[in-house]
């Protein structure tokens, strides 16, 4: 836990494996308010964020960026005070010496639902844009693209040994978006 005047150095915090030996995310951070720093396999800082439920945020980031979530450092606080969270986040970014890609050019990939329209194959795009399709046909095509992307994400997580339950919001698939339920 921390206060506004006691901001811990990122370098002094413990690395937690994003996915532990049992295939779980760090469960001790469920329903905890805090700031977290996500690192890739080589422990290069990828993203710094804060949340009212660190565990749920980590789960969301893992689904959106599975290839970049290998280690995490976390600082929890007792009260949800935005100014404290923002101060820690900014201090860690400053300590890093540069803004992580996940906090600038790639921020949408870390913080927004996955837009499957942007990652359609050429064949899927051609089917989707076919002028003979009505709205229902387009919805069916986009849902199939979402299912394909979902299966790819789940396969990556399986190869990483991930055992947590991942459920995507089925209503968003019709819009071509993947986000956890």
Task: Explain how this protein is built.
- With 181 residues, the chain is an alpha+beta fold.
- It folds into two domains: 10-111, 3-Layer(aba) Sandwich (GIY-YIG endonuclease), CATH 3.40.1440.10; 114-178, no CATH class.
- The chain is built from six helices and six strands.
- The chain has a four-stranded antiparallel beta sheet with strand order 1-4-2-3, with helices on one face. A two-stranded antiparallel ribbon has the order 5-6.
- The chain starts with 15 loop residues before the first strand and ends with a strand.
- 27% of the residues are buried.
- The model has no long low-confidence stretch (mean pLDDT 95).
Write the layout of secondary structure elements.
Blueprint: E1 16-17, E2 33-39, E3 45-51, H1 54-64, E4 71-77, H2 82-96, H3 107-111, E5 114-115, H4 122-128, H5 135-159, H6 170-173, E6 177-178
Antiparallel strand pairs: 1-4, 2-3, 2-4, 5-6
Number of helices in the DSSP assignment: 6
Percent helix range? 25-40%
Provide the CATH architecture of the largest domain.
3-Layer(aba) Sandwich
Instruction: Give the topology string: H per helix, E per strand.
Output: EEEHEHHEHHHE
CATH homologous superfamily heading of the largest domain: GIY-YIG endonuclease
Overall geometric form: elongated
Number of strands: 6
Question: Mind telling me the C-alpha Rg?
Answer: 18 Å
Instruction: Kindly give the count of domains.
Output: 2
What is the highest CATH level, the class of the largest domain?
Alpha Beta
The chain-level structural class is alpha+beta
